[in-house]
Write a structure and sequence with these properties.
Length: 124
């Protein structure tokens, strides 16, 4: 274990820090090893938050998930998306969301706009 701590700048630094965390795992809090474990965990979390991109969900998946979460039916989407036929086309990925629909879904269901503006995955 290297005594000096430094920012993680590349995948090699990240891997080395992960290996050291594994070796220090279970160290008692308040000990030099426990303190080092805490600092390494913070460095790793910071590096990962900056380098590992979290893939946002597909807009249709996000709508379906929110419907399931809130116990909504397709009929509940009519004020935001329009007719039953249009809702069916959107949820089956045959029709894209319009800007007006994105705004309505964002306000009505609280789905982040950055998810709703993403391209819809093509129907299988």
């Amino acid at each position: 274990m290297n005594g000096d701590l430094k920012p993680l700048r590349n995948p090699a630094d990240h891997e080395a820090a992960l290996a050291e965390v594994e070796a220090l795992w279970g160290s008692a809090p308040g000990t030099p090893e426990g303190d080092r474990l805490d600092v390494l965990a913070t460095l790793i979390a910071d590096y990962e938050s900056q380098t590992i991109l979290v893939d946002l969900p597909d807009p249709v998946d996000a709508i379906l998930f929110r419907m399931e979460q809130q116990g909504l039916t397709r009929k509940d989407l009519e004020p935001m998306l329009g007719s039953r036929g249009r809702i069916s086309e959107i949820l089956s990925r045959k029709r894209p969301l319009t800007l007006e629909m994105i705004r309505a879904l964002h306000l009505g269901l609280g789905i982040p706009a950055e998810i709703l503006i993403r391209p819809v995955r093509r129907a299988a």
